[in-house]
Amino acid sequence: MIDELNEQMENADPVLKPGDTGNAEDTAEGKEIETLRKQLEEVNDKFLRIHAEFDNYKRRTIKEKAEILQTAGKDVILALLPVIDDFERARRASESTQDIETLKQGMDLIYQKFNTILQSKGLKPVDSIGLDFNVDMHEAITNVPAPSEDMKGKVIDETEKGYTLNGHVIRFAKVVVGE
């Protein structure tokens, strides 16, 4: 639209000033050109305002993204702080007790609490042993002869557990596959 208005202005005759000689058709054309100039100024003004608003939007979203990245793990860390507190209490208790069974029970409770928190944040372990080898979930570190015919192509052992976070694999399970 701006290009059309500029083209019309270039092709138009010069505007007649009061007192210039010219007929009624020339003054009507002059009024039309003046109207077009006003429209062009309005369109340019709107364009500049929209451009400025867009620049402000870009700056604001970049700033928001930076803030999100800086605080992305905040809720997970806050959820894990009680686990750290439990570990500190367990360390202090381990210095003064000789009852190994109580220490094991305490460690199991802390482990369960830790897993519960991670699962509530969307972390899930990948099941592997006895299942078919799946390249999307598993990383084969070695192949061994299968103990039976039905275990060929299946996971026999898991050396490192794999995990998904909200349905996306974040660590592949390192497995031994039967051949």
Please tally the β strands and state the result: 6
* Main sheet: strands, sense, barrel: 3 strands, antiparallel
- Using only CA atoms, what is the Rg? 37 Å
> What's the number of structural domains?
3
In whole angstroms, the N-to-C terminal distance is 70 Å
Strand content: 15-25%
Q: Which oligomeric state applies?
A: single chain
Order of helices and strands: HHHHEEEEEE
Q: Overall 3D geometry?
A: elongated
Overall SS class: alpha+beta
Strand order of the largest sheet: 1-4-5
Mean pLDDT across the residues is: 87
**Which stretches are poorly predicted, pLDDT < 50 over at least 5 residues?**
none
Q: What is the share of helical residues?
A: 55-70%
How many helical stretches?
4
Short description:
The chain is of the alpha+beta class and 179 residues long. The protein has helices spanning 2-11, 24-70, 74-96, 100-120, and strands at residues 123-125, 138-144, 155-160, 163-165, 168-171, 173-178. Helix 1 runs antiparallel to helix 2 (24-70) and helix 3 runs antiparallel to helix 4 (100-120).
Structure write-up:
This protein is of the alpha+beta class. Helices cover 56% and strands 16% of the residues. It contains four helices and six strands. A three-stranded antiparallel β-sheet has the order 1-4-5. It has a three-stranded mixed β-sheet with strand order 2-6-3, with no helix packed on it.
Topology:
Blueprint: H1 2-11, H2 24-70, H3 74-96, H4 100-120, E1 123-125, E2 138-144, E3 155-160, E4 163-165, E5 168-171, E6 173-178
Parallel strand pairs: 2-6
Antiparallel strand pairs: 1-4, 3-6, 4-5
Helix pairs in contact: 1-2, 3-4
